[in-house]
Amino acid sequence: MGIDLGSNYIKATLVQPGKTFQIVENTASKRKTESMITIGNEQRDYGADSFIASGKFPETTFAEIHRTFGEKYDAEVI
């Protein structure tokens, strides 16, 4: 499996020996998923659902989280 963590979208690919690679589709049958998460009212929304919920829960919507990978908890970017 290959994962591309882009600035705005996430893409995943399945690779098997002797076969062409296959791009994984999300629940909306799209090949790319928005790189965001929204936490609100005891549920988590990802991708397009998160984009929709971001208007309702702007304080708990996080985009481009991958930019924080490897950072210390007390880093300014966090």
Question: How would you characterize this protein structure?
Answer:
It is built from 1 helix and 7 strands; from the N terminus they run ββββββαβ. It has one helix at 47-53; strands spanning 2-5, 9-14, 22-23, 33-34, 36-40, 43-46, 61-63. Helices cover 9% and strands 33% of the residues. A hairpin with a 3-residue loop joins strand 1 and strand 2. Strands 1, 2, 3 and 4 form a 4-stranded antiparallel β-sheet that branches. The protein has a 3-stranded antiparallel β-sheet with strand order 6-5-7, covered by helices on one side. It has 78 residues and is mostly beta strands.
Number of strands: 7
SSE-based structural type: mainly beta
Rg is 15 Å
End-to-end distance, in Å?
A: 28 Å
Query: Low-confidence segments, ≥5 residues, pLDDT <50?
Result: none
Name the overall outline.
flat
SSE run: EEEEEEHE
Structure annotation, total helices? 1
What does the largest sheet look like?
4 strands, antiparallel
List the topology elements.
Layout: E1 2-5, E2 9-14, E3 22-23, E4 33-34, E5 36-40, E6 43-46, H1 47-53, E7 61-63
Antiparallel strand pairs: 1-2, 2-3, 2-4, 5-6, 5-7
